[in-house]
Amino acid sequence: xxxxxxxxLAAIRKKERKEQITGPLNEMLKGAPLPLRLxxxxxxxxxxxxxxxxxxxxxxxxxxxxxxxxxxxxxxxVADACGDSLQISQPFSQxxxxxxxxxxxxxxxxxxxxxxxxxxxxxxxxxxxxxEIRTLNVNVNGRIINVGSIGAGERSIYGNxxxxxxxxxxxxxxxxxxxxxxx
Length: 183
Prior knowledge:
The chain is 41% helix and 25% strand. It is α+β, with helices and mostly antiparallel strands. β5 (132-140) and β6 (143-146) form a beta hairpin. The radius of gyration is 24 Å and the shape is extended.
């Protein structure tokens, strides 16, 4: 039941975003010549798609930041260095990139934000790939605290499992092949 409710809510928000863009654009082009109105109709879906992508990236970043915040709050090393009641700011530096190669989408986020406690403060940096936090470090007075990266089998916001499940000593899946060329 909750899933259906979230799907309906997402559809309503999508429709609202579409109306926020197409409504003013149509109103602006109301008395314009036919070619401009047609161009407006062609550009409108692109603007809607861009708005949807931005909204999706913003929601993904919020989930990643919330995951990082919980990891920082639950880290005993950060609590030892900064104190127990941590204040974690919104990112002051952030970059996002999305690449699509052969239909495979890859989203990368890098972000920095302040971590302030009663004893000390620091700067946290995180790197995320496809919604999985790969690195999360806090620099407190020159000391780098590695809060941790996603472990094997943990789920990301995209619902897939981490691919780092093989260990160095696991050689069961290695296949050797020798190619002999005939002359």
